Amino acid sequence: MGVFSTAGGTEPTGHEQVVFCSDQQSGLRAIIAIYSTALGPALGGTRFYPYANEEDAIHDVLELSRGMAYKNAMAGLDLGGGKAVIWGDPDRDKSEPLLRAYGRFVESLGGRYYTACDVGTYVQDMDMVARETRFVTGRSEAHGGAGDSSVLTAYGVFQGMRAAAEHRWGSPSLAGRRVGIAGLGKVGKHLTRHLLSDGAQVVATDVSQRAFEWARETYPQVDLVDDVTALITSDIDVYAPCALGGALNDDTVPVLRATVVAGAANNQLAHPGVEKLLDERGVLYAPDYVINSGGVIQVADEIEGFNFERAKLRAGKIYDTTRQILLLAQEEGVPPAVAADRMADRRMAEVGRLRTIRLRHER
């Protein structure tokens, strides 16, 4: 995928702006991608990741920023979609000068893009970025922020999973269901707690030994397996991808035992067409950008002065949105991912159109 067109150069990516940021002294190499500002300023997190090459970094930020536009639209937010990636190893390369340099690049966009946490970045990093820019969310509570956005991300995923369970089995409870979680990171840990409290059985895996140790100490009733292949081929009712994207692909879908997929990872569908493979196999897919939007709802609430209970109430509506999408997909005979895209496109077009009505202060 290039900046102006998809792989093969046949279709435009649709992005409004892509900014490459470099600061040699701090080692900063970052890319900020703004997909759409039809609904408002673009909001999306900053991913700090050791990409194999520049092409992978570009592909990731373009895909993630597009997903954020659809996520924010379906979350009912008056915000567009953007994303940023910092190319590097967060354990080795992250520093105060680098984060502050990045903050200055965010500030240079004048509010077209608000940043927040993502893979490899945390609230303390956003506090540092905020020393150079006003346009940052996901800050620590000590600095007036919303704190860890994974709290409501997990809550929203749980609500989306409940809606999928009701659609598939007639009850919104996961009690007695076996749920496979791939990734016991920031979100997976909270999701495990919700599921166990609801009476679900949980089987999980992670690439980190520390995550395994955490699970054994905190929730010894969780079954642990060595890898994702062992997880998805085991006897599970629900598969919850909660790590990096591309979890659903030509290799994993044919061997997947679960009949519901509902997880926190972004861009779970490895390529267009995977949603049809899931549909053909009778697997009910709760669109990732819909059910994992609790985190962006949390950090978006910070823009107007954070109130956790208000944000949680908004995140709880993910249940209703997911039900609406699954019913629409059933009525129109299309996969849920297609139904969700149609709803998001409609909102961006219909609400975005209102910007053509000029207000006095905009002239």
From TrEMBL:
<feature type="active site" description="Proton donor/acceptor">
    <location>
        <position position="83"/>
    </location>
</feature>
<keyword id="KW-0547">Nucleotide-binding</keyword>
<dbReference type="InterPro" id="IPR036291">
    <property type="entry name" value="NAD(P)-bd_dom_sf"/>
</dbReference>
<comment type="similarity">
    <text>Belongs to the Glu/Leu/Phe/Val dehydrogenases family.</text>
</comment>
<dbReference type="InterPro" id="IPR006097">
    <property type="entry name" value="Glu/Leu/Phe/Val/Trp_DH_dimer"/>
</dbReference>
<dbReference type="InterPro" id="IPR006096">
    <property type="entry name" value="Glu/Leu/Phe/Val/Trp_DH_C"/>
</dbReference>
<feature type="binding site">
    <location>
        <begin position="183"/>
        <end position="188"/>
    </location>
    <ligand>
        <name>NAD(+)</name>
    </ligand>
</feature>
<dbReference type="InterPro" id="IPR046346">
    <property type="entry name" value="Aminoacid_DH-like_N_sf"/>
</dbReference>
<dbReference type="InterPro" id="IPR016211">
    <property type="entry name" value="Glu/Phe/Leu/Val/Trp_DH_bac/arc"/>
</dbReference>
<dbReference type="GO" id="GO:0000166">
    <property type="term" value="F:nucleotide binding"/>
</dbReference>
<feature type="domain" description="Glutamate/phenylalanine/leucine/valine/L-tryptophan dehydrogenase C-terminal">
    <location>
        <begin position="147"/>
        <end position="356"/>
    </location>
</feature>
<dbReference type="InterPro" id="IPR006095">
    <property type="entry name" value="Glu/Leu/Phe/Val/Trp_DH"/>
</dbReference>
<dbReference type="GO" id="GO:0016639">
    <property type="term" value="F:oxidoreductase activity, acting on the CH-NH2 group of donors, NAD or NADP as acceptor"/>
</dbReference>
<dbReference type="InterPro" id="IPR033524">
    <property type="entry name" value="Glu/Leu/Phe/Val_DH_AS"/>
</dbReference>
<dbReference type="Pfam" id="PF02812">
    <property type="entry name" value="ELFV_dehydrog_N"/>
</dbReference>
<keyword id="KW-0520">NAD</keyword>
<dbReference type="Pfam" id="PF00208">
    <property type="entry name" value="ELFV_dehydrog"/>
</dbReference>
<dbReference type="GO" id="GO:0006520">
    <property type="term" value="P:amino acid metabolic process"/>
</dbReference>
<keyword id="KW-0560">Oxidoreductase</keyword>
<protein>
    <submittedName>
        <fullName>Valine dehydrogenase</fullName>
    </submittedName>
</protein>
